[in-house]
Design brief:
6 domains, Elastase, domain 1, alpha+beta, 923 residues, Nuclear Transport Factor 2, Chain: A
C-alpha cells in the first residue's frame, strides 16, 4: 500500500491567479470579522484547490501556517464562482497564533518520533529505519517501513492546536501490518508523548453485530421458516446457465443482496462511457495498449482478472498481513478467460471458501465498486475532487489510488472497513466473513435437563473452529473472587484449575470491574477471560451472557494477549440453563459445528456504505486532507450517517416508499431483508412511529447517543427523510446517471454539500452546507423543503449545535429546535400517495389502535386545539389547549381506545389557521 507523502500546501504561483484571488478575498473577509489579524491569516497553506465543473465553483482548502509550519486542526476554505466572487468561506484559525506558538525547534529527531509513535500505538519498535526522501521537516520526510508499517512512513513537523495554545509535533503516518489501522499520529516534538491521533481506517466493529445484543428488545426470534432461509440462502445461477462473453454474473444495482434478486448477467458495456471511458476491466478493448502494464504485472500471464482502472478486487483470506502483493498476484482473483466470462455458480450451503462461491463474491464486489465509482462520479465525485482511479484521464487530481477491494479478508470477522488516505494513495475496502448464527450448532449431551442443540456466535480473535474444533467436557470456572459463584473468570489461577485443564471452560460474561473501562456491556473483558482459561489449561472457552434475556452477538477486537484456543459465545437464556445443570451436578459435553458463513461481498448495502467513507473523507476539507471527519466517541461526526445514506440510496428500487422500514446489513446479520434488525438500533423510515429520532438524541446521559455509529444513525435518518421529499417532489429516476429525478438531485446535493461544509462539521453545519449547495445548484428552489425536513427532526432555526472542543463538535450542549427561519414557508411534507407525513401536521401510528400521537411544526401565538372528527364532521375527541412548543417537540398523545374502527379526521387549530389530516383507527 503506497501512501503519498503529504506536502504542506500548493504554491500560489503554481495554482495561478484564481487561487491568489481566492486567498486575497479570504484574508480580507476573515479580517473583516474582527477575530483574526492580518498575521493570523498570512501565508496559509493551500492543501487543495480545484474547479468543480458541475457547479462552476472553485473550492480552495487551507490550513493556518505559523513559523513556516502548518497547524494540524486549524483549517479554512473559500469557495468562489467563475467571476471570482466569494460564495462562501469559513475558517477555524487560532487568533494570535504567532504568540501562542513555541519555537519550531524539536528536541526529538524524526527517527525518534517514529519510535515514540510506535510505542504509543503498542507496535514493535522500528528496525533498520532509514530516510528515503530528504526534505525540509516542514515539507515532510519519508522513511522506509521500519518493519512496522505496510507502507513507507511519512513524517512531518507541524503544530497541533490545543485550546488557545500550539504544541510543536511530529506527524507520523503508520499503516499497521494487520491492516486494521492507518494512523496519523501527532507526537510532541519535545517530550515524545502522543498528543493526538486519527485513523484513516473507518471501522464498523463498534456497531456491526454489537448493537444486536445491546438492544435486545430489537431482536425478535426468527420464525422457523425465516431461520431456515437465513441459514441456507438460495442456490443461484449454476455455471453455464447465465454466462456470456464480456460479462459478469452479479446481484445488479439496485438490489441489496441475493435475497432480493437472483444474480443476472451484466455486460461490461454497462461501464458508463463518460466516467469509465476505458471500461471496468483490464481486458477491455477500449483501453489503449499497455495502459495497465506498469501496475498489473499479471497481464503477462494472459489471465483476465477482476482488475481495472477503478478497482482491484481479490481474495485476501490467507493471512492477516498479506500486504500489497495481492494486487499484483495472478492467483487470488477469478479468471474470466479469453472471453471475459465472469460467471461462477453460487451455493451458500457449500460455504464461502468453495472456489466457485469465492469467485462469485469477488466478481460481485468488483462490479459494485465500479458501479459506485461511475454513479458517484456522475454526481461530482470526480478525478479533480479526489476519486479512486489508477490513472486520471483528465490529468487533474492524483492517480494511483484505485480501490483495493479485499474479499473475505483474513484480518478479522463480522466486520467491514474502509481506509481513506489522502488523494494519491489507494483506498482499501476490507470485507469480512460473517458468522451464520442461524446455522451454528452447539450440541450438548449429558444431563437431560440441558441436552439439546443451541445457537452460538463466534469471536474475531483466536483460532477458527475449522482449524481447532471445539469439543469436550464443559466445566464451570471458579475464580474465587467474582460474584455468582466465581464463574466470571476475573482472576487466575482458578480455584478449580485442575478440573478446567483439558476441558472447555464455561464462563459468564462481565462481572470484572477491574477490566471495565467505558461500558460494562462491551467486549473489552472477553479476550482476558479467554486468556485466563488458556492459562489454566482449558482447550476451549464458551462464554454465556450475564443477562438471561439477551440474544447473540459477535465479539470483535484484536488478540493482544496471545490466545491459542477457540472461543464462542451463547445467549444468557441458554447459558443459565446449562449453568443450572452443571451446578446441579450434571455432566455436559459440548461440540460446536459452524454453519456456512456469509460473505460480506454479497451485501451490497454494506459495500456501498464502505465506499461512502471514501467519498465523504475525500470531499470534506478537500482531497489532500482526509482528517476532517474524526470518528471519535463523543464527536458529532456524521460519517457513518452519510455512508448509511449511500447504502440506502444505491439500493432504492422503483416502487419503494419512504415509510417502509429499511435496514442495514440484513444479509450479513442473517436477517430477512424486510424484518431486520440489521446493524442499527431503529429502521430507517419517514414514519415517525418507526423512527422518532431528533437532534436531541445525541448526548451523554442515559439513552443518548455518543458512539459514532449511533450518532451517524440520527444524521442518516434526516437525510433519508429529505431524500424521499425530493423523490415525492421530483419523482424517482431509475437511471442513476441522470440529473433528473428527486433521488438523483438529492445525491448531487449531498456531495455538493460535503465540498462546501466546514472541516469537522456538526449536524447544523451539515444542514447549512446542504442549503448552500441548493442555493448554488438550484437557486435555493428547495430551501423551504430542506428547512421543514430538518425542523421536523429538531434541527430547525433555533436548534443549538452545542460544544466545540479543539475544533471538534461534541455531542454535549445540543438543543432541539423545531421552528423555521423568519419568512420560511411551512410545507406539508408528503408521502408517496400525497398524504401529509410531517411538517404541517402528522398523526402516527397510522393506522392507530389505542393511542395516537399528533405533532406539528406549525407555529401559533396561542395554544393549539386538537380535535378528532368522524367523516360526518361530528367531534368524537377533543383535547385541552396544547402549547405550540409542546406540539412542535413531542406532540400530544390521544387515547383512541373508545373510538370505533374506521377513518377519522384530525384537526389542529392555530392562531394562523386550521389544518387537518386523515387517520385510520383499527382495533
Amino acid at each position: 500500500m503506497a501512501i503519498a507523502l503529504a506536502m504542506p500546501g500548493l504554491a500560489v504561483a503554481q495554482q495561478g491567479a484564481p487561487v491568489a484571488q481566492a486567498l486575497a478575498s479570504f484574508s480580507a473577509k476573515v479580517q473583516a470579522q474582527g477575530r483574526l489579524s492580518a498575521a493570523d491569516v498570512a501565508n496559509p497553506a493551500v492543501t487543495s484547490s480545484y474547479f468543480d465543473q458541475s457547479t462552476g465553483l472553485t473550492h480552495t482548502y487551507l490550513q493556518q501556517r505559523v513559523n513556516g509550519l502548518t497547524v494540524f486542526n486549524a483549517t479554512g476554505a473559500v469557495h468562489t464562482d467563475q467571476t471570482g466572487k466569494v460564495v462562501f468561506f469559513n475558517q477555524d484559525f487560532l487568533p494570535g497564533a504567532a504568540a501562542a506558538a513555541p519555537a519550531a525547534t524539536p528536541a526529538l529527531t524524526p527517527e525518534q518520533a517514529v519510535g515514540a509513535a510506535a510505542k504509543s500505538l503498542s507496535l514493535p519498535q522500528p528496525v533498520a529505519l532509514r530516510r528515503l526522501v530528504e526534505a525540509r521537516a516542514a515539507d515532510g520526510l519519508l522513511f522506509n517501513n521500519g518493519g512496522i508499517s505496510e507502507a513507507n512512513i511519512p513524517v512531518r513537523l507541524m503544530y497541533q492546536r490545543v485550546g488557545d495554545k500550539l504544541v510543536l509535533v511530529w506527524n507520523v503516518t503508520i499503516a499497521q501490518l494487520d491492516q486494521q489501522h492507518l494512523w496519523s499520529a501527532r507526537i510532541d516534538a519535545q517530550t515524545g508523548r502522543m498528543l493526538d491521533r486519527n485513523d484513516y481506517v473507518v471501522n464498523e466493529l463498534a456497531t456491526f453485530r454489537q448493537h444486536v445484543l445491546e438492544n435486545k428488545e430489537r431482536r425478535q426470534p426468527l420464525t422457523t421458516a425465516a431461520a431456515a432461509a437465513a441459514a441456507t440462502r438460495a442456490v443461484r445461477s449454476p455455471k453455464g446457465t447465465l454466462g456470456a462473453p464480456n460479462s459478469l454474473t452479479v446481484i445488479p444495482v439496485p438490489f441489496e443482496n441475493i435475497d432480493l434478486s437472483p444474480r443476472v448477467v451484466v455486460p461490461f458495456s454497462s461501464a458508463n462511457p463518460l466516467y469509465s471511458p476505458y471500461g471496468w476491466q483490464v481486458g477491455d478493448a477500449k483501453a489503449p495498449s499497455g495502459f495497465f502494464a506498469d501496475s498489473y504485472s499479471f497481464l503477462s500471464t494472459g489471465k483476465q482478472l477482476t482488475r481495472g482502472n477503478n478497482v482491484a478486487a481479490y481474495d485476501d483470506n490467507m493471512t492477516a498481513t498479506s500486504g500489497s502483493g495481492n494486487v499484483a498476484s495472478s492467483t487470488n482473483s477469478p479468471d474470466g478467460g479469453a472471453t471475459r466470462d465472469f460467471d461462477f455458480p453460487f451455493n451458500q450451503p457449500q460455504g464461502p471458501r468453495n472456489a466457485d462461491n469465492l469467485a462469485a463474491g469477488i466478481t460481485n464486489l468488483f462490479y459494485w465498486n465500479n458501479m459506485l465509482h461511475d454513479v458517484m462520479m456522475s454526481k461530482g465525485f470526480d478525478e479533480v475532487s479526489g476519486n479512486f482511479q489508477y490513472k486520471n484521464l483528465t490529468g487533474q487530481g492524483l492517480g494511483n489510488d484505485f480501490v483495493r477491494a479485499e474479499s473475505q479478508d483474513g484480518s478479522g470477522r463480522n466486520n467491514a472497513n474502509f481506509s481513506t488516505p489522502p488523494d494519491g494513495s489507494s483506498g482499501r475496502m476490507q470485507m469480512y466473513l460473517f458468522d451464520n448464527t442461524a446455522a451454528n450448532a452447539l450440541t450438548i449431551t449429558g444431563a437431560s435437563s440441558a441436552a439439546g442443540t443451541y445457537r452460538f456466535a463466534g469471536v474475531a480473535f483466536g483460532p477458527k473452529l475449522t482449524k481447532k474444533p471445539l469439543a469436550g467436557k464443559l466445566v464451570l470456572v471458579n475464580d474465587g473472587v467474582s460474584a455468582d459463584g466465581g464463574d466470571h473468570a476475573c482472576a487466575t489461577p482458578f480455584v478449580n484449575a485442575a478440573d478446567v485443564a483439558g476441558n472447555i471452560a464455561f464462563i459468564q460474561r462481565g462481572g470484572c470491574p477491574q477490566l471495565t473501562t467505558l461500558n460494562p456491556r462491551v467486549n473489552n473483558q472477553f479476550a482476558p477471560k479467554v486468556k485466563r482459561a488458556q492459562d489454566n489449561g482449558a482447550t476451549a472457552v464458551i462464554v454465556f451472557d450475564s443477562l438471561a434475556t439477551t440474544g447473540l452477538t459477535n465479539f470483535g477486537g484484536a488478540d493482544t494477549v496471545g490466545i491459542r484456543i477457540p472461543a464462542i459465545f451463547i445467549s444468557g437464556a441458554d447459558g443459565f440453563k446449562l449453568r443450572a445443570a452443571l451446578l446441579a451436578g450434571g455432566t455436559l459435553n459440548a461440540t460446536a459445528t459452524l454453519g456456512p458463513e456469509f460473505d460480506g461481498s454479497f451485501d451490497n448495502g454494506v459495500v456501498s456504505h464502505e465506499f461512502g467513507h471514501g467519498i465523504t473523507n475525500r470531499l470534506t476539507g478537500g482531497p489532500a486532507n482526509a482528517s476532517c471527519l474524526n470518528p471519535a466517541t463523543g464527536n458529532q461526526t456524521m460519517g457513518e450517517g452519510w455512508s448509511d445514506f449511500f447504502a440506502l440510496w444505491m439500493t432504492t428500487r422503483p416502487g419503494d416508499d419512504g415509510k417502509t422500514s429499511r435496514y442495514i446489513a440484513t444479509y450479513d446479520n442473517g436477517d430477512p431483508y424486510n424484518v431486520g434488525p440489521g446493524f442499527r438500533r431503529k429502521p430507517y423510515s419517514t414514519d415517525f412511529s418507526k423512527n422518532n429520532y431528533t437532534y436531541a438524541q445525541l448526548g451523554t446521559t442515559t439513552g443518548k447517543f455518543q458512539e459514532t455509529h449511533d450518532v451517524g444513525e440520527v444524521w442518516a435518518t434526516v437525510l433519508w427523510d429529505l431524500n424521499w421529499q425530493f423523490i415525492y417532489k421530483y419523482g424517482y429516476n431509475a437511471d442513476f446517471f441522470s440529473a433528473t429525478g428527486g433521488n438523483n438531485k438529492m445525491l448531487k446535493l449531498v456531495l455538493d454539500g460535503c465540498k462546501l461544509q466546514v472541516c469537522n462539521p456538526g449536524f447544523l453545519d451539515g444542514r447549512d452546507a446542504l442549503l448552500r449547495a441548493d442555493s448554488v445548484t438550484n437557486r435555493a428552489a428547495n430551501a423551504d423543503l430542506i428547512w421543514n425536513v430538518f425542523a421536523r427532526r429538531g434541527m430547525g432555526y433555533s436548534a443549538v449545535q452545542g460544544d466545540r472542543v479543539n475544533g471538534q463538535p461534541r455531542v454535549t450542549g445540543i438543543a432541539n429546535g423545531f421552528d423555521l427561519p423568519p419568512g420560511s414557508k411551512v410545507i406539508a411534507l408528503a408521502n408517496k400517495n400525497g398524504a401529509v407525513v410531517g411538517g404541517a401536521l402528522e398523526a402516527y401510528p397510522n393506522p392507530a389502535q389505542d393511542q395516537l400521537t399528533v405533532r406539528t411544526q406549525l407555529s401559533s401565538a396561542a395554544p393549539m386545539q386538537v380535535t378528532v372528527l368522524d367523516l360526518l364532521g361530528k367531534t368524537v375527541l377533543r383535547t385541552v389547549a396544547v402549547p405550540a412548543a409542546r406540539m412542535q417537540q413531542t406532540g400530544v398523545e390521544l387515547n383512541t381506545s373508545r373510538l370505533a374502527s374506521g377513518i377519522y379526521v384530525v384537526r389542529v387549530t392555530t392562531s394562523n389557521g386550521t389544518y387537518s389530516t386523515k387517520v385510520s383507527i383499527q382495533h
